[in-house]
Amino acid sequence: MTAPTLDQALISLRDLTDAAATLRGVVVRTPLLRDETLSAQLDADIRVKPEMLQRGGAFKLRGAYNFLAKLPPSERSRGVIAPSSGNHAQAVALAAKLFGVKATVVMPETVTSAKRGGAERLGARIVLAGTTTQHRMDRALEIARDEGGVLVPPYDHPWIIAGQGTAGLEIAEDLPEVKTVLVQVGGGGLSAGVATAIKLRCPSARVIGIEPEGAPKLSRARAAGKPTRLDKTSSIADGLMAVEIGGTPFVHHRAYMDDVVTVPDAALREAVRHLLDRMKLVAEPSGAITIAALMQKLVVPSGPTVAVLSGGNIEWDGLTALLGG
Question: Do domains 6-56+157-323 and 61-151 have the same CATH topology?
């Protein structure tokens, strides 16, 4: 797979502000909350952006709704299909419900009950396919071909990146003096969008991508100079398990991301517990990975720092199993 050239793929500030206008009144403008405990421990101003408070329990509605809004009504009316480990599925199901169209979501056979149940409650038809990103994409493409629906990509599309990037615009507007932003890296839509928004609005700020040790797809791509498929991935951060970074996101990472670090699974459990105990926020492991990087001192804050908490789609049984309680 060859990455697109920069002039082919970069979204603009206008794309981001247009997406923000589209999403106004639809998505929650999540606040920046100060993590008093980590701020004291690290002698820094640490804030979190809690996207678990977003409709659907994660940031994904931003991109999904923006994508559906940009479709011509004649295409949108055919229905939409979403390959997803869980959060994108719920977001597309919700966006489809808001637009009054049918949704089919293709989820892994190992999907958590919280994520499957969320999509079902929103009215989506559930199809299970394998365990990898590619399994889900292949099945979604089959359904789109056979049934005529529109595929809503989870991350590798400029409309998705622009929608997810509105979270970065909000950070820049609410904390213009921000100096460090930590953001999750899965397939790359959120991290690409946030990095673009931050660098275009706050060019002196650092943007650091955070990914699991067992799924270092951006680290591998940066070393190779292009997206590179991993042989396998393994992590409790099920939302960050893509085997390859998206081509369009990678162009944005190459232009705007300062660094990427990897985090071990054990640190994710500690971060989930920290957010629950100290901030009264329920995060899934993928959502807590940025806090894990700070707790492990894998990123040293410089100036006001924001950790994106990408989602909290984990229910009681999953939470107690994760934390051993």
Answer: yes
6-56+157-323 — its CATH code? 3.40.50.1100
Angle between helices 316-323 and 113-121 (to 10 degrees): 160
Q: Tell me if the pTM is above 0.90.
A: yes
Beta strands in the chain (DSSP E): 33-34, 46-50, 80-83, 103-107, 125-128, 150-151, 180-184, 206-212, 259-263, 305-309
Distance CA 267, CA 300 (A): 16
Return the H-helix or E-strand segment holding 154: none
Question: Is 179 a residue of the active site?
Answer: no
CA gap 104, 129 in Å, rounded? 13
CA dist 211 and 221 (Å) reads 13
**pLDDT tens-digit series, residues 81-105:** 999 878 899 999 999 999 999 999 9
- What is the tens place of the pLDDT at every residue in 252-289? 999 999 999 999 999 999 999 999 999 999 999 999 99
Q: Which residue among the candidates 39, 49, 60, 204 is catalytic per the annotation?
A: 60
Q: Which of 85, 191, 219, 310 is catalytic?
A: 310
Distance of alpha carbon 309 from alpha carbon 286, whole angstroms: 8
Contact by Cβ (8 Å): 266, 240: no
Domain ranges (residues) in the chain: 6-56+157-323, 61-151
Please say if 70 is a catalytic residue.
no
CA atoms within 13 A on the CB side of 227: 22
CATH class as words, domain 61-151: alpha beta
Eight-class DSSP state of 244: S
- SS3 state at 86: coil
First to last CA, the chain: 44
Provide the pLDDT for residue 251. 96
